[in-house]
Structures are given as C-alpha cells and as structure tokens.
Design brief:
Length: 256
C-alpha cells in the first residue's frame, strides 16, 4: 500500500513539474511549422537583385537559403526596398531582414544582429567618361547621389560639409547609377562590392578613390524578438564557413 502511494505521489509530482515547465515562459526551440517573413532590398547587387531570367538572386539570397537548409527552418522573402524593410521589421510586419545591412551602434539600439557575414566599405564612383572628378576635393559645389539608409549615404553626409557638396537621395541603386551616368549628379557613394559588381556588369561608371573602411553586414531582427532566428543564422553561418559553402557563394558573385 505504501509503495502504491509512493508511486502515485511521484506521478503527481512529475505531472506538476511538466505542467510548470510547459507554462513557464518561452522556449528557444523554433516552431517547425513557423514560416519566417524575411524582408530585403530590391536592387543591391551582388547581394540581392533580379537576374536575366527574372529570378531574385544574390549573396544574401543564396546565403539565407543555405542557412535555412542547414538549420531546418522555413521562410518567405518580402522584396520591399531597404527603408521599407527597416520599417517592416520595426513594425513587426517582418520577422527579420537581410539586405547588405551594416552593423552600427545606432542600429543596435533598435535591432539585434547576427554575427557579421561580410566586411564591406564605401567607395566613390563617377561616370565612365568623367575626367574631371578624381578626388573628394573635386566635388566642391556639386551634387552627389546616395542611396537612402545606406553606409554610403552616412559616409557622404559625414564629409559633405568639409568638401562642399550636397546630397541627392535615391531609393534604389539602379536610379542612383543612372543619375550619375546622365550627369545630373557628379558622383555617387556606394558599398564597394555593389558598385564593383555594377561596373563589371556594364554600368558606365568607374571608381576614382580608394575604399573607405566600413562596417560589417549582418542579419537583423527587432531588438528582443526572434532570438531563435539569430541563433539559427549564426549556427548555420558557422557551418557554412566550415564546409566551404560560404566561400562558394561569395566566389559565385564576387570575382577576385
């Protein structure tokens, strides 16, 4: 009889413990049925862009797909543009964002970032036939094109007063480049792999300065939300670097 009571007591205790665990806060384990909504830019080659066949491709797209496969989570891409992606994550209309997004102290106040997945920098470009602008000093009194919300825009803004030029903002790289080519703006400031890729693909531009060391790119979620997504991204990135897939993706889009 005592043995029966003891077993019953143990069963009740285990049931209570299980109930308490189930109700005691959030689990870090991802929901296998959850489909994460990931926001991204529209034209930021080689990180995200539409290829000749109409497919949305790039370093960020391939990297996210490989990490999701490695970690076993589902996602869908929302192609919104850079500023709209920032707003979507902040308003919780998107769970995360990957868009060549520089990790900065200011952004860390709003977002939680993954480990860096790419080290970038800023470079100045001018029209291919422009022979008058070769340095920042040559921009005095002129207009310079930048993309809203980017590191290129931040850098250009930081030196605009010193070198006496004004800024014209664009929402996408394609229109930014076209404005410089047409001569409406004298130059542009852009992330070096992005501008380099555009030139390699035929944009009538050229670089005329050395690269300014910039920040690293990171995957982002709203601060305090979706910690499991950051954890999976970091683990997947680590695995991809170990097995060579990460470098394979970079080599596909950036020629050395």
């Amino acid at each position: 009889m005592k043995k029966t009571k003891l077993i019953l007591a143990l069963l009740i205790t285990l049931a209570l413990l299980f109930s308490a665990t189930a109700c005691s806060g959030k689990s870090d384990a991802p929901n296998p049925d959850k489909v994460y909504k990931i926001a991204t830019d529209t034209t930021f080659a080689p990180f995200e862009f539409e290829d000749a066949s109409g497919n949305f491709v790039g370093i960020d797209m391939d990297l996210l797909a490989a990490i999701a496969e490695d970690q076993g989570f589902k996602y869908e891409i929302s192609i919104l543009g850079f500023d709209a992606s920032l707003q979507a994550v902040q308003s919780k209309q998107a769970d995360g964002m990957i868009a060549g997004m520089s990790i900065t102290d200011k952004r860390k106040e709003v977002f939680d970032f993954s480990d860096p997945y790419f080290d970038s920098g800023v470079i100045m470009g001018v029209a291919k036939d422009n022979e008058t602008i070769k340095s920042y000093e040559d921009l005095k009194g002129l207009k310079v094109a930048v993309k809203t919300g980017t590191e290129g825009a931040t850098f250009a803004s930081s030196i605009a007063e010193q070198y006496g030029f004004s800024l014209v903002y664009f929402d996408d790289s394609a229109n930014l480049y076209q404005d410089v080519i047409l001569g409406n703006t004298a130059a542009c400031f852009e992330d070096y792999p992005v501008l380099g890729y555009a030139i390699a693909k035929g944009q009538a531009l050229k670089t005329v300065t050395e690269m300014e060391r910039g920040s690293s790119y990171g995957f982002a979620v709203l601060k305090g939300s979706n910690p499991e997504l950051i954890k999976m991204f970091n683990e997947g990135l680590k695995n991809l670097k170990s097995n060579g897939k990460y470098q394979e993706i970079l080599d596909k889009y950036i020629q050395k």
